[in-house]
Amino acid sequence: MNDFQLTYKQFGERSVLIDWSSKVDKKILEDIILFKERLEKSSIKELIEVNLAYSSMLISYKTTIDNIYDEISKLKTIYSTQNKIKKLVFRQWKIPVCYEDVFALDLEEISIKKKMSKQDIIRQHSEAIYTVFFIGFLPGFLYLGGLNSAIDFPRKQTPRLQIERGAVAIGGNQTGVYPCQSPGGWNIIGNSPINFFDISNDCPCFSKSGDKIKFYPITLKKHKDISALVKAGVYQLESEVLYG
Amino acid sequence: MVKVIKSGFYSTIQDLGRSRFQKYGVPVSGVMDFYSAKLANALLDNNESDAVLEITMTGPTLQFNCDTIMCVSGADISSILNNKPIKLNSIVNIKKDDILSFGKLKYGFRCYLAVFGGFQTEMIMNSRSMYKVITSQNVLFVNDELSISEHINSIIKSNASIKVNTAYFSSKEIKVYKGPEFDLLTKAQQQQLLSKEFTISKDNNRMAYQLVEPLKNNLKPIITSLVLPGTVQLTPSGKLIILMRDCQTTGGYPRVLQLKESSINVLSQKFTGNNIRFKIKEKNIIISTIFYMFFYISRNIKLT
């Protein structure tokens, strides 16, 4: 078991915020996921939702917290119980991305400023295996860890008013895919035809915290073909099971 | 069925929101002012989670295609039924072809129209609350048809209405708790935040209310963490942003305050140029401890 110093704070009337040390770290993510599993299997009733970010977890209850010290001590007990949890299953998802010029609006600029060829940037971006930390910002927006520092690139000074759905982008040392049309300040290097947020599914996002993402380059023609299949609801996303 | 003849400034269908889906990055949404919306539903004997129409600043014009009963609560936007003014917070009988319209905004900013059984618009992820990318539309348009259940009335012959204390709409006081990063502020900043009067800027909507007066800030952004409706964020430029019902689920600005839930309702009735003042609410732990002590003492006295 990892030895983290957790802080517990009441947040509003009905939530408790738990903070790990504030950094992006896979060990912290594992610890958060394990704690979340224990909580969801625990007998704490009145729990609406457990939600995570990089190094924090928010626990929301149905009703006002009467005695915060009681709640915190219950949570601490659950955190420290060592009872074995069934091995968690994670998946690695293969995500097609078209890095061609029609989509890659900012690839040229990154290439010039970084003195790297476009091909090099694409290779670096699609070779890495990214970890899904959590979903936030927009419905279905995955916060990914693992961008190669060789291709990090600062956010735009002025955000674009409209970024297309599926845009694959780099913002600082993060990378991600815009699941829907949105304003945004990240640098666009490609587009994925995959639907990252599908309201017709009970579980609208295919991946979850702890999963892995691997991008792979496709041609514009392939992008069109996959888009058509996605639209028709018949596209099968490739994935393999990983054991955590 | 209710037909939209004019849409008004910003009219949306809302219920109590989409909880349990925040882990997918889905905003909670739901009525901005729970108090007024729940009141309208309660007067019709609806469920409190039935969907209502949230009307902002200027009202729509609506035509009913069936008999029903309705109730209007919240802001006073001079509601008119077939050219006759109607009372807020009272049950109103509606006949087929009646037309509901609105006039001048007298007080408040958001008004709620509840109909018998609630609006039966599309339900996505356990909620009818309109939100871009979740529901097929995020605001009402002319010619929209909203389905409702028929209510054969003529039973209700009541002129009674509930009087709502208008101090609810005029109060400047917004009750808050310390936010997770409050203690990172200097004593001077904390004092300024809690003593200054702030003005609501023109950037106010269902996602967030920005305040005009900045707070001198030297806090760095935090690692992206979780936020809630009612979270007050402090941006690097010193701008204060109060997140509202349609806010994102995560954010990277320090969270200096958290609104008491009832104060989110109060704020929802305010608009550009209105002034507010934050009042910190110490965690009610002390009060509840005293209450329980008193409870035990009084119980023991009875027993002995």
In short:
The complex is a heterodimer of chains A (244) and B (304). By secondary structure, chain A is of the alpha+beta class.
CATH topology of the largest domain in chain A: Cyclophilin
Helical amount among residues of chain A, as a percent range?
A: 10-25%
Strand order in the sheet with the most strands of chain A: 7-6-13-5-14
Counting helices, strands and paired strands, the structural category of chain A is alpha+beta
Structural account:
The complex is a heterodimer of chains A (244) and B (304). Chain A has 244 residues and is an alpha+beta fold. Chain A folds into two domains: 7-80, Gyrase A, domain 2 (2-Layer Sandwich), CATH 3.30.1360; 89-243, Cyclophilin (Beta Barrel), CATH 2.40.100. Chain A is 25% helix and 32% strand. Chain A has a five-stranded mixed sheet. A four-stranded antiparallel sheet of chain A has the order 1-2-4-3, with helices on one face. A three-stranded antiparallel sheet of chain A has the order 10-9-12, with no helix packed on it. The longest helix of chain A is centred in the first third of the chain and has 16 residues, at 26-41. The two termini of chain A are 14 Å apart. Chain B has 304 residues and is an alpha+beta fold. Chain B has two domains: 2-167, no CATH class; 171-300, Beta Barrel (Cyclophilin), CATH 2.40.100.10. Chain B has helices at 34-43, 167-170, 187-195, 261-268, 285-303; strands at 2-6, 10-14, 52-56, 61-64, 68-76, 79-81, 84-85, 92-94, 99-102, 107-115, 145-146, 173-178, 198-204, 208-211, 225-226, 231-234, 240-243, 250-251, 255-259, 275-280. In chain B, strands 12-19-16-17-14-13-20 form a seven-stranded mixed barrel. The longest helix of chain B has 19 residues, at 285-303. The relative contact order of chain B is 0.17. The model of chain B has no long low-confidence stretch (mean pLDDT 91).
